[in-house]
TrEMBL record:
<feature type="region of interest" description="Disordered">
    <location>
        <begin position="184"/>
        <end position="214"/>
    </location>
</feature>
<feature type="compositionally biased region" description="Basic and acidic residues">
    <location>
        <begin position="184"/>
        <end position="194"/>
    </location>
</feature>
<protein>
    <submittedName>
        <fullName>Uncharacterized protein</fullName>
    </submittedName>
</protein>
Length: 338
């Protein structure tokens, strides 16, 4: 036997191995210690979620996100272990035991208590699968709350942990009956009259209509203190926020003298607009008395028409007037320069 000193012996006992072979005592001690620590940690988490003082504390403690995730993971692992045991006992996934399989078992002479026992086991494992999905959803939201500095609801988490523990205990208590039902399915017609049922065989009952746990446990972000008194509606919140922002900018502009500069600039623009003459769409033409040159023949049309003898019918001057105005607009034909 190889001799070791006290330090090496303590190290081997701590590591749980001697000459490369694990010792049963070390593994058992480590398992018991780990189970006790896990139990107290889980119990403290549940007490904190209830708002009560945990074991060894005088008041309720704050629960961190990592503690919540670990507690959820441990409870889910216990339930998954019982689910695996039930599947191994039955020899196949219990979810495959459908109504057609139940009918075939009845026709082959399987006892009713065995069929009811398997049906209850199927219901339990289906509920376990649903709780497992909800556990993953809760863990993701807890990590999001840790990352975004937000809070989560306590009551749904506490109720979910209790459902995980209760379902794991129920599956564990149902294992002996499931094994007996498996034996009854293996020999359906053997001594059918002698065995009519187990004294404490469970009967299938409808799932209890418990309050369903909400999927969303992540609380919304807290609003800033300056907007804490605003309404809860998003539209009203945004309108009041914009009004507050406009008032804030106006007050800042007044304090820095920006508004006075703007008012003076507006006054200068108004004075400039009043002093400027109104813009005219027509071009001013020189008077006929001040013009130099000979009047064009185009302008003699009106005089020729006026000197012509009057006709018995009314004369329409519209065409002549239009012709005269058109001649005036053409600068190249208005005057014949000397």
């Amino acid at each position: 036997m190889k001799c070791v000193d006290k330090k090496q012996e303590a190290h081997l006992l701590k590591s749980g191995s001697c000459e490369g072979r694990p010792t049963v005592e070390a593994h058992a001690l480590r398992s018991v210690t780990s189970s006790a620590e896990s139990f107290w940690l889980d119990e403290s988490v549940r007490q904190a979620l209830r708002g009560q003082a945990g074991p060894g504390y005088s008041e309720a403690q704050h629960v961190g996100c990592e503690q919540l995730c670990r507690s959820l993971q441990r409870s889910q692992q216990k339930l998954d272990a019982e689910h695996q045991v039930a599947t191994a006992t039955w020899g196949a996934p219990l979810s495959l035991f459908s109504e057609s399989a139940q009918q075939r078992a009845t026709e082959s002479g399987v006892h009713d208590w065995a069929i009811l026992t398997v049906m209850k086991a199927r219901r339990l494992v289906e509920e376990a699968a649903g709780l497992g999905d909800l556990t993953e959803v809760y863990k993701a939201q807890i990590l999001t709350a840790q990352r975004e500095k937000r809070k989560v609801l306590r009551e749904p988490l506490l109720r979910h942990l209790e459902r995980l523990d209760g379902l794991a205990e129920e599956l564990q208590a149902h294992q002996p009956y499931l094994r007996a039902a498996k034996d009854a399915f293996s020999r359906p017609k053997a001594d059918a009259k002698a065995e009519t049922g187990l004294p404490s065989s469970p009967s299938v009952k409808n799932p209890t209509h418990e309050k369903e746990s909400p999927v969303v446990i992540l609380q919304p972000r807290s609003r800033p203190l300056m907007f804490g008194s605003l309404g809860a509606k998003p539209k009203e919140y945004m309108i009041r926020f914009l009004e507050s922002a406009i008032d804030f900018v106006g007050a800042a502009a007044t304090a820095t003298g920006m508004s006075a500069d703007v008012q003076s600039a507006e006054a200068e623009n108004a004075a400039t607009e009043e002093a400027a003459p109104p813009a005219s769409t027509e071009v001013a033409l020189p008077a006929l008395e001040t013009a130099v040159g000979t009047i064009s023949q185009w302008l003699d049309v009106k005089e020729a028409i006026e000197e012509s003898p009057p006709s018995p019918r009314e004369v329409d001057w519209t065409s002549a007037q239009l012709l005269w105005q058109r001649c005036r607009r053409k600068s190249d034909r208005r005057w014949t320069l000397a």
